[in-house]
Amino acid sequence: MEHSRHTRVLVAKPGLDGHDRGAKVIVQAFRDAGMEVIYTGLHQTPQQIARVAMQEDVDVVGLSILSGTHVALCQVVMDELRAQGLGNVVVFVGGTVPPKDVPKLKAIGVKEVFGAGSRFDDIVQSINTHVATRRG
Amino acid sequence: MDHNTTDMLEVGIREFRAKQERGLARLITLVETSPELGNSIFSRIGESLAQSQSQCHVIGFTGPPGAGKSTLVNAVTAVLRGEGHRVGIIAVDPTSPFSGGAMLGDRIRMERHYLDSGVFIRSLATRGGVGGLSPATKDVLKLMRAFGFDYILVETVGVGQTELDVMTAVDTVVVVLVPEAGDSIQTMKAGLMEIADVFVVNKADRPGSEELRSSLRVMLGLAAKRGPWEPLVITTQADKDIGSGEVLEAIVRHAEQLRQTGELEVRRALREERELLDLVSAHIINRWKALKDRPELAELASQVICRRIGVDRFLNAIANLA
Ligand code: B12
Ligand SMILES: Nc1nc2c(ncn2[C@@H]2O[C@H](COP(=O)(O)OP(=O)(O)O)[C@@H](O)[C@H]2O)c(=O)[nH]1
Ligand SMILES: [Mg+2]
Fold first, then answer.
1. pLDDT at B293
2. Running DSSP on this structure, what letter comes out for residue B151?
3. H helices within A13-59, ranges in order?
4. Is residue B267 situated within a structural domain?
5. Are residues B256 and B295 in the same domain?
6. Fewer CB atoms near the end CB (10 Å): N or C, chain B?
7. Same domain assignment for residues B117 and B6
8. Assigned domain for B92 exists
9. Among all ligands shown, which has an atom nearest to the Cα of B177?
10. What letters, b where the CB count within 10 A reaches 16 and e where it falls short, cover A32-60?
């Protein structure tokens, strides 16, 4: 049968920053690219994000962080994801991440970082590549 | 079946049997992917499904977009949790016909239950379904029943008059309306209004809710009765948790009545019959699609269309073609 699996993405805003424009435009962009997108809303704890990711069985967790606390937040989110058995979910980060922090995030297990001014096409293409690899 | 899918199936079934939510989540993805995967799954977890049939009550929440369906599901879930029940939630949102993508936003209203281990929420996109649910919703319901929830709440997409699939999927239908809908009640009569077991007039803080309530009552008084049950009308302010207890009471009364009168069995039997017909027709359609370019069928097909031979001969032919 030619049924295909849709790409499911969770877009989440961990922590206390209230900048949600980026998250909202990203949700739209993913939907327009044919993905099924779940948006959690603002101020999510890492535990909440991981549990939602588990129930929704998403391929990708996208974190939008504009508070400057991305390294600490991502560390906890990755731990919680692993605690839910989701260690191999593809994690993307966007928002205000200075270039010097990108290697730190990748060392924690974040797959890609897309900061201010990123093009939707590039983000979508990168997600598709990572999801294809994950599904083998 | 590719490797990845086989692995996911094996792991999913093992986790599901161990009552791990992760297994339920994985199996939902698989039944959404194809009905054939559904067969492989249900043939192996059928026992728990059979056992669970009677205990679990399934409630549908439907109504126009923005009426407060998600908010009400959130509020009713809180009441159910207060009573110690385990709750499964299926929230359906529309797939964009242009991109095939979807924004699944219902669960934003259910945030207070994210960390509750007694609540499992799954968002589904309609994926071509036109009746307010997705094609896989009934299979997802089966999985959730077998997993052992006491109540399953199903939220449809925002509907008008004709998206009535929910009626054939659940035990109790709750139709959520808002005062702004008052004027359109007359036109709605034909669809939504006839499938409701419980009416909720939400956003009671807005002007016009009393009027809506009385016009519903009048309408119900005039309507031909569908059975012994008289639909109840409950007023709520879902975002303030006002009235959600009464909504649950109405649902429970309906559930009891369904049991006492034997109507529950009748409804479930109708539902099963409908499901059987859906499965059979989907099978025949798929079989036909796979074979329709075969020359030996072209002649038969045209003879069926002219009514020169019966459909049974045609079905025999497509069943027996290798
Ligand atoms: C608009 C804005 C606000 C608005 C927010 C409105 C809203 N609802 O979003 C308001 C005025 C409320 C605001 C308030 C504040 N702000 Co402000 N704000 C901005 C500003 C100017 C633009 C942000 C924006 O909306 N950009 C447009 C969107 C589309 O871009 P984006 O979010 O970057 O998203 C893009 C990418 O990052 C990426 N992306 C984003 N998310 C994701 C997710 C994934 C998965 C992926 C793949 C990609 C991705 O894709 C998008 C498209 O390219 C930035 C400065 C800046 N240039 O970034 C400061 C900025 C973010 N704010 C800042 C601060 C300090 C504040 C305040 C604390 C100020 C104060 N003292 O009160 C408050 C805090 C508010 C709060 N509750 O958190 C700082 C943050 C400092 C830091 N990170 O270290 C910034 C960087 C300004 C600065 N240079 O100091 N702010
Ligand atoms: N004023 C008022 N707003 C409400 C009430 N219940 C829900 N809402 C709001 O109505 C909007 C739509 O609610 P939602 O549950 O998403 O509606 P749905 O589309 O039917 O699922 C949200 O902003 C809710 O906060 C209510 O009783 N009164
Ligand atoms: Mg909703």
1. 87
2. E
3. 21-32, 46-56
4. no
5. no
6. C
7. no
8. yes
9. 2
10. bbbbbbbbbbbebbbbbbbbbbbbbbbbb
B1-48 per-position pLDDT tens digit: 777 889 999 999 999 999 999 999 999 999 999 888 998 999 998 777
Distance CA B70, CA B76 (A): 10
* Secondary structure (H, E, C), B203-230: CCCCCCHHHHHHHHHHHHHHCCCCCCCC
CA of residue B93 to ligand 3 center, whole Å: 7
**Do residue B30 and residue B119 come from a single domain?**
no
The reply to whether B26 touches chain A by the CB within 8 Å rule is yes
Q: How far is B76 from chain A (nearest CA, A)?
A: 20
Q: Give me the residue from A1, A34, A55 closest to B120, CB to CB.
A: A55
**Contact (CB, 8 A) for A51 and A43:** no
CA-to-CA distance for B24 and B4, rounded, in angstroms?
17
Co-location of B86 and B193 in the same domain: yes
Write out pLDDT tens, residues A96-135. Answer: 999 999 999 999 999 999 999 999 999 999 999 999 998 8
Instruction: Measure CA B40 to chain center.
Output: 22
User: Which of residues B36, B51, B66 is at a domain's end?
Assistant: B51
Residues of chain A with pLDDT under 50: 1-3
Can you give the pLDDT at residue A2?
A: 38
Does B153 lie in the same domain as B204? Answer: yes
- Collect all residues of chain A within an 8 Å Cβ-Cβ radius of residue B101: 30-37
Look at residue A95 in the predicted model and tell me its pLDDT: 96
B116 lies in the same domain as B247: yes
Q: Is A126 in the pocket of ligand 1 (CB under 6 A)?
A: no
- Give the residue carrying structure tokens 């435009």: A25
Residues B261-274: tens digit of each pLDDT: 998 888 889 888 88
Q: Do B109 and B231 reside in the same domain of the chain?
A: yes
B237 Cα to the center of ligand 2, angstroms: 9
- pTM greater than 0.95 (yes/no): no
On whether the CB atoms of residues B41 and B155 are closer than 8 A, the answer is: no
**CATH topology (fold) of A9-135:** Rossmann fold (3.40.50)
Is B150 domain-assigned?
yes
**Domains in chain B, number:** 3
**A interface mutation test: which of B123, B147, B285, B286 has the most A CBs within 10 A?**
B123
Residues of chain B with pLDDT under 50: none
Q: Which atom of ligand 2 is nearest to the CA of B240?
A: 27
> What whole-number distance in Å separates Cα of residue A31 and Cα of residue B98?
10
CATH number for B232: 3.40.50.300
Specify whether B208 is located in the same domain as B299: no
Q: How many helices (H) and strands (E) does chain B have?
A: 12, 8
Any ligand 1 atom below 6 A from CB of A22: yes
Could you tell me if the CB of B65 is within 6 A of ligand 2?
yes
